[in-house]
Amino acid sequence: METQTQKGFWYADWSFPIFVGLLSAGVFAGTHMYYMHGIGAFNEVAFVAMLRTGIDTGVYGAVAAFGASFLFARIIEGSLVGILDIGGAIQTGVGLGVPALLLGAGIMFPLQNFAASIVTGLLIGLLIGYVIILARKFTINQSNSTYGADVMMGAGNSSGRFLGPLIILSAIAASIPIGIGSLFGALLFYIWGKPITGGAILGAMILGAIFPVAIS
After folding, report:
1. How many whole angstroms separate alpha carbon 46 and alpha carbon 93?
2. What pLDDT is recorded for position 81?
3. Once rounded to an integer, what is the mean pLDDT over residues 202-215?
4. Does residue 44 sit within a domain?
């Protein structure tokens, strides 16, 4: 009975890319809404501020590198650990990195058309899902070792601390109240002995909710 259950839809390898595709379609469509109407992106305020800066200036290098690096790291992590980080891979990678790469290359149609954004996000998600499944079949599934997963989990947690200053700078660029909230949040978490990244994000979100950025 257990073997039959694990071969069903919810446990099958072939269904995983479908779930990732559906999630990616929704997130990419949210970025389309933000690009066209200024609201709807599925990301933290500080991260979306980086995309806003790119849209205003036409320079997408920073947000493209930031989002794409997250996506690449999370694909590797998903292959090793077996758990895909939706925030890093889908929200940041597909929601920010891929759109920034497309806009930087002058490809605007997927972000200007709602139907095209759904299809584009779906295809990207399917690709991510199949890459992770194939990588697992040729790596972890061939061995009983899990050291790779342990190393990746440790590396991800350690490298996250360096995002704090970047988040604070992005929040300051969004607005003065959001920047102040991010700065005080990071300071409180530093005094508390916790990673400042979480404090910077929470502070920016709280002050951003009280003093929202005006949408023109």
Report:
1. 15
2. 67
3. 78
4. yes
